[in-house]
Specification:
Number of helices: 11
Structural class: alpha+beta
Shape: globular
Low-confidence stretches: 1-12, 407-415
Helix content: 25-40%
Radius of gyration: 21 Å
Strand content: 25-35%
Distance between the termini: 14 Å
Mean pLDDT: 86
Protein backbone atom coordinates (compact mmCIF):
# COMPACT_ATOMS: atom_id res chain seq x y z
CA UNK A 1 0.00 0.00 0.00
CA UNK A 2 1.07 3.61 -0.50
CA UNK A 3 -0.32 7.03 0.21
CA UNK A 4 -2.20 8.70 -2.64
CA UNK A 5 -0.42 12.01 -3.31
CA UNK A 6 -3.69 13.73 -4.18
CA UNK A 7 -6.07 12.50 -1.45
CA UNK A 8 -3.87 11.24 1.38
CA UNK A 9 -5.63 7.84 1.28
CA UNK A 10 -3.94 4.49 0.87
CA UNK A 11 -4.10 2.69 -2.44
CA UNK A 12 -3.03 -0.83 -3.47
CA UNK A 13 -0.28 -1.84 -5.87
CA UNK A 14 0.36 -1.56 -8.75
CA UNK A 15 -0.70 1.63 -10.56
CA UNK A 16 -1.43 1.61 -14.28
CA UNK A 17 -1.96 4.65 -16.52
CA UNK A 18 -4.16 4.43 -19.61
CA UNK A 19 -3.98 7.39 -22.00
CA UNK A 20 -6.74 8.29 -24.44
CA UNK A 21 -5.42 10.70 -27.10
CA UNK A 22 -8.84 12.18 -27.83
CA UNK A 23 -7.45 15.23 -29.58
CA UNK A 24 -3.79 14.26 -29.83
CA UNK A 25 -0.60 13.67 -27.88
CA UNK A 26 2.20 16.09 -27.10
CA UNK A 27 4.73 16.30 -24.29
CA UNK A 28 3.09 19.29 -22.61
CA UNK A 29 -0.35 17.64 -22.84
CA UNK A 30 0.96 14.46 -21.20
CA UNK A 31 2.62 16.32 -18.33
CA UNK A 32 -0.49 18.48 -17.87
CA UNK A 33 -2.74 15.40 -17.74
CA UNK A 34 -0.54 13.79 -15.08
CA UNK A 35 -0.49 16.99 -13.02
CA UNK A 36 -4.27 17.21 -13.34
CA UNK A 37 -4.47 13.58 -12.14
CA UNK A 38 -2.64 14.46 -8.93
CA UNK A 39 1.12 14.60 -9.51
CA UNK A 40 2.31 17.40 -7.17
CA UNK A 41 3.62 20.26 -9.37
CA UNK A 42 6.07 21.48 -6.74
CA UNK A 43 7.65 18.01 -6.49
CA UNK A 44 7.82 17.70 -10.27
CA UNK A 45 9.59 21.07 -10.45
CA UNK A 46 11.95 20.09 -7.62
CA UNK A 47 13.02 16.95 -9.47
CA UNK A 48 13.39 18.79 -12.77
CA UNK A 49 15.75 21.31 -11.16
CA UNK A 50 18.25 18.45 -10.82
CA UNK A 51 18.86 18.94 -14.55
CA UNK A 52 20.43 22.32 -13.76
CA UNK A 53 18.35 24.15 -16.38
CA UNK A 54 16.50 27.47 -15.83
CA UNK A 55 12.71 27.18 -16.13
CA UNK A 56 9.31 27.80 -14.56
CA UNK A 57 6.31 25.52 -15.00
CA UNK A 58 3.08 27.48 -15.43
CA UNK A 59 -0.30 25.77 -15.45
CA UNK A 60 -3.78 27.21 -15.83
CA UNK A 61 -7.25 25.68 -15.83
CA UNK A 62 -8.91 25.30 -19.20
CA UNK A 63 -12.36 24.22 -20.30
CA UNK A 64 -12.43 22.15 -23.49
CA UNK A 65 -15.93 21.20 -24.72
CA UNK A 66 -17.15 21.67 -21.15
CA UNK A 67 -14.39 19.43 -19.73
CA UNK A 68 -12.26 20.89 -16.95
CA UNK A 69 -8.66 20.44 -18.05
CA UNK A 70 -5.17 21.76 -17.35
CA UNK A 71 -2.99 23.65 -19.81
CA UNK A 72 0.77 23.78 -19.24
CA UNK A 73 3.47 26.17 -20.42
CA UNK A 74 7.20 26.14 -19.73
CA UNK A 75 8.91 29.51 -19.35
CA UNK A 76 12.66 29.69 -19.91
CA UNK A 77 15.24 32.10 -21.38
CA UNK A 78 16.72 29.64 -23.88
CA UNK A 79 16.45 30.31 -27.62
CA UNK A 80 17.16 27.98 -30.57
CA UNK A 81 19.11 25.35 -28.63
CA UNK A 82 20.49 22.42 -30.61
CA UNK A 83 21.50 19.32 -28.65
CA UNK A 84 22.56 15.85 -29.74
CA UNK A 85 21.16 12.66 -28.29
CA UNK A 86 24.50 12.18 -26.52
CA UNK A 87 24.20 15.66 -24.97
CA UNK A 88 20.74 14.93 -23.61
CA UNK A 89 21.65 11.45 -22.37
CA UNK A 90 24.63 12.83 -20.45
CA UNK A 91 22.46 15.61 -19.04
CA UNK A 92 19.89 13.13 -17.72
CA UNK A 93 22.39 10.53 -16.49
CA UNK A 94 24.41 13.14 -14.62
CA UNK A 95 21.43 14.82 -12.99
CA UNK A 96 20.86 12.53 -10.01
CA UNK A 97 17.30 11.77 -11.09
CA UNK A 98 15.87 8.48 -9.87
CA UNK A 99 16.87 5.49 -11.96
CA UNK A 100 13.37 4.75 -13.30
CA UNK A 101 12.86 8.39 -14.28
CA UNK A 102 16.22 8.54 -16.05
CA UNK A 103 15.77 5.23 -17.89
CA UNK A 104 12.27 6.14 -19.11
CA UNK A 105 13.44 9.58 -20.27
CA UNK A 106 16.47 8.22 -22.12
CA UNK A 107 14.34 5.51 -23.77
CA UNK A 108 12.06 8.21 -25.23
CA UNK A 109 14.99 10.26 -26.51
CA UNK A 110 16.60 7.14 -27.97
CA UNK A 111 13.47 6.45 -30.03
CA UNK A 112 13.59 10.02 -31.28
CA UNK A 113 17.28 9.77 -32.16
CA UNK A 114 16.79 6.50 -34.03
CA UNK A 115 13.82 7.91 -35.95
CA UNK A 116 15.62 11.14 -36.86
CA UNK A 117 18.67 9.09 -37.84
CA UNK A 118 16.62 7.01 -40.29
CA UNK A 119 15.07 10.15 -41.77
CA UNK A 120 18.39 11.97 -42.22
CA UNK A 121 20.72 9.00 -42.76
CA UNK A 122 22.75 9.52 -39.56
CA UNK A 123 23.76 7.27 -36.64
CA UNK A 124 21.54 7.96 -33.60
CA UNK A 125 24.49 9.27 -31.56
CA UNK A 126 25.14 11.97 -34.17
CA UNK A 127 21.58 13.18 -34.52
CA UNK A 128 21.13 16.83 -33.53
CA UNK A 129 17.72 17.68 -32.14
CA UNK A 130 16.28 21.06 -33.01
CA UNK A 131 12.73 21.50 -31.70
CA UNK A 132 13.07 18.39 -29.53
CA UNK A 133 16.44 19.59 -28.21
CA UNK A 134 14.87 22.77 -26.92
CA UNK A 135 14.57 23.10 -23.18
CA UNK A 136 10.77 22.93 -23.08
CA UNK A 137 10.76 19.56 -24.91
CA UNK A 138 13.38 18.16 -22.52
CA UNK A 139 11.32 19.30 -19.54
CA UNK A 140 8.12 17.86 -21.05
CA UNK A 141 9.69 14.41 -21.49
CA UNK A 142 11.60 14.25 -18.21
CA UNK A 143 8.75 15.94 -16.33
CA UNK A 144 6.25 13.36 -17.59
CA UNK A 145 8.54 10.55 -16.41
CA UNK A 146 8.92 12.27 -13.02
CA UNK A 147 5.13 12.63 -12.72
CA UNK A 148 4.61 8.93 -13.56
CA UNK A 149 7.04 8.02 -10.77
CA UNK A 150 5.36 10.34 -8.27
CA UNK A 151 2.01 8.75 -9.11
CA UNK A 152 3.53 5.27 -8.64
CA UNK A 153 2.71 4.33 -12.23
CA UNK A 154 4.52 1.15 -13.24
CA UNK A 155 2.75 0.27 -16.50
CA UNK A 156 1.26 2.37 -19.30
CA UNK A 157 -1.16 1.77 -22.15
CA UNK A 158 -2.44 4.16 -24.80
CA UNK A 159 -5.02 4.27 -27.55
CA UNK A 160 -3.98 4.64 -31.22
CA UNK A 161 -2.48 8.09 -31.77
CA UNK A 162 -4.26 10.47 -34.18
CA UNK A 163 -2.38 11.70 -37.24
CA UNK A 164 -3.39 15.11 -38.56
CA UNK A 165 -2.84 16.48 -42.07
CA UNK A 166 -1.34 19.47 -43.83
CA UNK A 167 2.03 21.18 -43.44
CA UNK A 168 4.00 22.15 -40.34
CA UNK A 169 6.88 24.65 -40.12
CA UNK A 170 10.06 23.13 -38.63
CA UNK A 171 13.77 23.92 -38.36
CA UNK A 172 14.42 22.04 -41.62
CA UNK A 173 11.63 23.93 -43.40
CA UNK A 174 8.01 23.01 -44.17
CA UNK A 175 7.25 19.35 -43.49
CA UNK A 176 4.23 17.16 -44.17
CA UNK A 177 1.94 16.20 -41.29
CA UNK A 178 2.46 13.80 -39.64
CA UNK A 179 6.15 14.67 -39.49
CA UNK A 180 8.65 12.16 -40.90
CA UNK A 181 10.17 11.49 -37.47
CA UNK A 182 6.74 10.98 -35.93
CA UNK A 183 5.85 8.36 -38.54
CA UNK A 184 9.22 6.63 -38.13
CA UNK A 185 8.67 6.35 -34.39
CA UNK A 186 5.19 4.88 -34.93
CA UNK A 187 6.13 2.50 -37.74
CA UNK A 188 4.63 -0.89 -36.88
CA UNK A 189 2.14 0.63 -34.40
CA UNK A 190 -1.58 1.23 -34.77
CA UNK A 191 -2.45 4.85 -35.55
CA UNK A 192 -5.57 6.58 -36.82
CA UNK A 193 -5.43 9.10 -39.65
CA UNK A 194 -7.77 12.07 -39.35
CA UNK A 195 -8.66 15.04 -41.55
CA UNK A 196 -7.74 17.53 -38.82
CA UNK A 197 -5.65 20.16 -40.70
CA UNK A 198 -2.86 20.43 -38.13
CA UNK A 199 -0.27 18.40 -36.22
CA UNK A 200 -2.16 16.43 -33.56
CA UNK A 201 0.65 14.11 -32.44
CA UNK A 202 4.11 15.63 -32.03
CA UNK A 203 7.42 13.74 -32.17
CA UNK A 204 7.76 14.26 -28.41
CA UNK A 205 4.29 12.84 -27.75
CA UNK A 206 4.89 9.91 -30.08
CA UNK A 207 8.25 9.07 -28.50
CA UNK A 208 6.89 9.19 -24.95
CA UNK A 209 3.89 6.99 -25.74
CA UNK A 210 5.83 4.53 -27.90
CA UNK A 211 8.66 4.10 -25.40
CA UNK A 212 6.33 3.66 -22.43
CA UNK A 213 4.04 1.18 -24.21
CA UNK A 214 6.56 -0.58 -26.44
CA UNK A 215 4.69 0.75 -29.48
CA UNK A 216 1.58 -1.34 -28.80
CA UNK A 217 -1.47 0.94 -28.85
CA UNK A 218 -4.92 -0.33 -27.94
CA UNK A 219 -8.23 1.33 -27.17
CA UNK A 220 -8.90 -1.20 -24.42
CA UNK A 221 -7.20 -0.66 -21.07
CA UNK A 222 -6.41 -3.73 -18.93
CA UNK A 223 -8.96 -4.53 -16.20
CA UNK A 224 -8.36 -1.86 -13.58
CA UNK A 225 -9.98 0.17 -10.82
CA UNK A 226 -9.77 3.91 -11.69
CA UNK A 227 -8.42 6.10 -8.86
CA UNK A 228 -7.52 9.35 -10.61
CA UNK A 229 -8.37 11.00 -13.93
CA UNK A 230 -6.60 13.90 -15.59
CA UNK A 231 -7.08 15.98 -18.75
CA UNK A 232 -4.19 17.74 -20.49
CA UNK A 233 -5.31 20.53 -22.82
CA UNK A 234 -3.76 21.35 -26.17
CA UNK A 235 -3.41 24.91 -27.41
CA UNK A 236 -5.34 24.71 -30.69
CA UNK A 237 -9.09 24.39 -31.23
CA UNK A 238 -9.77 21.25 -33.24
CA UNK A 239 -12.54 20.89 -35.78
CA UNK A 240 -13.75 17.37 -34.98
CA UNK A 241 -12.61 16.54 -31.43
CA UNK A 242 -11.92 18.16 -28.05
CA UNK A 243 -8.21 18.89 -27.92
CA UNK A 244 -7.45 16.93 -24.75
CA UNK A 245 -5.32 13.98 -23.72
CA UNK A 246 -7.04 11.99 -20.95
CA UNK A 247 -5.27 9.73 -18.49
CA UNK A 248 -6.94 7.24 -16.15
CA UNK A 249 -4.82 5.92 -13.30
CA UNK A 250 -5.62 2.99 -11.06
CA UNK A 251 -4.57 -0.44 -9.93
CA UNK A 252 -4.82 -3.37 -12.29
CA UNK A 253 -6.03 -6.83 -11.36
CA UNK A 254 -3.56 -9.30 -9.89
CA UNK A 255 -1.76 -6.63 -7.86
CA UNK A 256 -0.76 -8.64 -4.82
CA UNK A 257 -0.63 -12.15 -3.38
CA UNK A 258 -0.31 -14.90 -6.00
CA UNK A 259 -0.30 -13.91 -9.65
CA UNK A 260 0.52 -15.43 -13.03
CA UNK A 261 3.22 -13.65 -15.02
CA UNK A 262 4.91 -14.16 -18.37
CA UNK A 263 8.61 -14.99 -18.65
CA UNK A 264 10.01 -13.89 -22.03
CA UNK A 265 13.35 -15.30 -23.19
CA UNK A 266 15.59 -14.88 -26.23
CA UNK A 267 19.10 -16.26 -26.91
CA UNK A 268 21.32 -13.61 -28.51
CA UNK A 269 24.84 -14.38 -29.74
CA UNK A 270 25.50 -11.54 -32.19
CA UNK A 271 24.98 -8.36 -30.16
CA UNK A 272 27.57 -6.41 -28.11
CA UNK A 273 27.16 -6.10 -24.37
CA UNK A 274 26.43 -2.39 -24.42
CA UNK A 275 23.52 -2.98 -26.83
CA UNK A 276 22.07 -5.66 -24.59
CA UNK A 277 22.51 -3.46 -21.52
CA UNK A 278 20.62 -0.69 -23.30
CA UNK A 279 17.90 -3.19 -24.25
CA UNK A 280 17.42 -4.16 -20.60
CA UNK A 281 17.18 -0.48 -19.68
CA UNK A 282 14.58 0.11 -22.40
CA UNK A 283 12.50 -2.92 -21.38
CA UNK A 284 12.44 -1.79 -17.76
CA UNK A 285 11.45 1.70 -18.85
CA UNK A 286 8.59 0.23 -20.94
CA UNK A 287 7.03 -1.51 -17.95
CA UNK A 288 8.81 -4.86 -17.53
CA UNK A 289 8.58 -6.03 -13.93
CA UNK A 290 12.19 -7.17 -14.23
CA UNK A 291 14.73 -7.74 -16.99
CA UNK A 292 18.17 -9.32 -16.88
CA UNK A 293 20.92 -11.09 -18.84
CA UNK A 294 22.15 -14.65 -18.28
CA UNK A 295 25.44 -15.88 -19.84
CA UNK A 296 24.91 -19.12 -21.79
CA UNK A 297 26.75 -21.39 -24.23
CA UNK A 298 25.16 -22.15 -27.58
CA UNK A 299 26.09 -24.69 -30.28
CA UNK A 300 29.79 -25.19 -30.98
CA UNK A 301 30.58 -23.62 -27.62
CA UNK A 302 29.70 -20.08 -28.69
CA UNK A 303 29.30 -17.71 -25.78
CA UNK A 304 26.00 -15.81 -25.78
CA UNK A 305 23.44 -14.16 -23.52
CA UNK A 306 19.86 -15.07 -22.73
CA UNK A 307 17.75 -11.94 -22.38
CA UNK A 308 15.00 -12.52 -19.81
CA UNK A 309 11.96 -10.36 -19.14
CA UNK A 310 9.30 -10.75 -16.46
CA UNK A 311 5.99 -9.20 -17.50
CA UNK A 312 2.29 -9.19 -16.79
CA UNK A 313 0.18 -11.15 -19.26
CA UNK A 314 -1.37 -8.08 -20.86
CA UNK A 315 2.15 -6.71 -21.52
CA UNK A 316 3.50 -9.86 -23.21
CA UNK A 317 3.02 -8.91 -26.86
CA UNK A 318 4.21 -5.33 -26.35
CA UNK A 319 7.41 -6.35 -24.56
CA UNK A 320 8.11 -9.28 -26.90
CA UNK A 321 7.97 -6.92 -29.88
CA UNK A 322 10.19 -4.44 -28.06
CA UNK A 323 12.69 -7.20 -27.21
CA UNK A 324 12.94 -8.17 -30.89
CA UNK A 325 13.37 -4.56 -31.98
CA UNK A 326 16.04 -3.78 -29.41
CA UNK A 327 18.16 -6.95 -29.84
CA UNK A 328 17.50 -8.06 -33.41
CA UNK A 329 16.38 -11.53 -32.31
CA UNK A 330 13.81 -13.11 -34.63
CA UNK A 331 11.83 -14.93 -31.97
CA UNK A 332 10.93 -14.74 -28.30
CA UNK A 333 9.91 -17.69 -26.14
CA UNK A 334 7.28 -17.16 -23.48
CA UNK A 335 5.93 -19.25 -20.66
CA UNK A 336 3.58 -18.61 -17.78
CA UNK A 337 5.15 -18.57 -14.33
CA UNK A 338 3.60 -18.05 -10.93
CA UNK A 339 4.76 -15.50 -8.41
CA UNK A 340 3.90 -15.02 -4.75
CA UNK A 341 4.49 -11.43 -3.63
CA UNK A 342 4.75 -9.57 -0.38
CA UNK A 343 3.42 -6.05 -0.02
CA UNK A 344 6.27 -3.61 -0.48
CA UNK A 345 6.79 0.11 -0.29
CA UNK A 346 9.63 2.62 -0.32
CA UNK A 347 10.10 5.56 2.01
CA UNK A 348 12.93 7.95 2.87
CA UNK A 349 14.73 8.17 6.20
CA UNK A 350 16.68 11.09 7.60
CA UNK A 351 20.31 10.37 8.48
CA UNK A 352 22.71 12.91 10.04
CA UNK A 353 24.50 13.09 6.69
CA UNK A 354 21.62 12.90 4.21
CA UNK A 355 18.49 11.10 3.09
CA UNK A 356 18.31 7.44 2.12
CA UNK A 357 15.44 5.48 0.62
CA UNK A 358 14.58 2.15 2.23
CA UNK A 359 12.39 -0.64 0.91
CA UNK A 360 10.02 -2.29 3.38
CA UNK A 361 8.46 -5.71 2.80
CA UNK A 362 5.41 -6.84 4.77
CA UNK A 363 3.17 -9.89 5.06
CA UNK A 364 -0.31 -9.77 6.59
CA UNK A 365 0.28 -6.18 7.66
CA UNK A 366 3.54 -6.96 9.47
CA UNK A 367 6.88 -5.62 8.23
CA UNK A 368 9.47 -8.36 7.97
CA UNK A 369 12.38 -6.75 6.11
CA UNK A 370 13.88 -3.27 5.76
CA UNK A 371 16.43 -2.89 2.99
CA UNK A 372 18.22 0.39 2.17
CA UNK A 373 18.33 1.33 -1.51
CA UNK A 374 21.84 0.54 -2.69
CA UNK A 375 22.20 3.59 -4.95
CA UNK A 376 21.38 5.99 -2.12
CA UNK A 377 23.51 4.15 0.43
CA UNK A 378 26.46 3.95 -1.95
CA UNK A 379 26.22 7.67 -2.72
CA UNK A 380 26.15 8.58 0.98
CA UNK A 381 29.11 6.29 1.69
CA UNK A 382 31.16 8.06 -1.01
CA UNK A 383 30.13 11.53 0.14
CA UNK A 384 30.90 10.90 3.82
CA UNK A 385 33.74 8.38 3.63
CA UNK A 386 31.79 6.00 5.85
CA UNK A 387 31.86 2.26 5.18
CA UNK A 388 28.86 1.08 3.20
CA UNK A 389 27.76 -1.41 5.92
CA UNK A 390 27.65 1.50 8.38
CA UNK A 391 25.27 3.44 6.10
CA UNK A 392 23.07 0.35 5.75
CA UNK A 393 22.98 -0.05 9.52
CA UNK A 394 22.23 3.63 10.11
CA UNK A 395 19.38 3.57 7.57
CA UNK A 396 17.74 0.54 9.18
CA UNK A 397 18.11 2.10 12.63
CA UNK A 398 16.60 5.37 11.38
CA UNK A 399 13.56 3.54 10.04
CA UNK A 400 13.15 1.55 13.26
CA UNK A 401 13.23 4.78 15.28
CA UNK A 402 10.74 6.53 12.99
CA UNK A 403 13.13 9.14 11.55
CA UNK A 404 11.27 9.40 8.22
CA UNK A 405 11.81 12.22 5.76
CA UNK A 406 9.16 14.91 6.02
CA UNK A 407 8.90 15.12 2.22
CA UNK A 408 9.95 11.65 1.15
CA UNK A 409 6.58 9.94 1.38
CA UNK A 410 6.01 6.28 0.65
CA UNK A 411 6.22 5.14 -2.94
CA UNK A 412 5.52 1.77 -4.50
CA UNK A 413 8.04 -0.60 -5.99
CA UNK A 414 6.46 -3.70 -7.44
CA UNK A 415 9.07 -5.13 -9.78
Amino acid sequence: MSEDSATGTERPLPQHAHFQPVGGAAGDMMLAALLHAGAPPEEVSRELRKLGLPFELRSEPAEISGIRSLRLTVEHPEQHAHRTFSDIRELVQGSGLRERVASRSIAAFRLLAEAEGRVHGLPPEEVTFHEVGALDSILDIVGSCVALKLLDVETVSCGPLPMGSGIVRAAHGPLPIPGPATLEILKGSRVRFTEEPRETTTPTGAALMASLTGGSFTDAAPPMTPRAIGYGAGNATLRDAPNVLRVTIGEIEGASGTEDLELLEANVDDAPGELLGAAVETLLGAGALDAWLEPIFMKKGRGAYKVCVLARSNEREKLARLLMRETGTLGVRHLTVGRVTADRRITEVELPYGRCRVKIGSLDGEDFIVSPEHLDASRLAKETGLPLPRVYSDARAAYDSGRLSATGGDENNNR
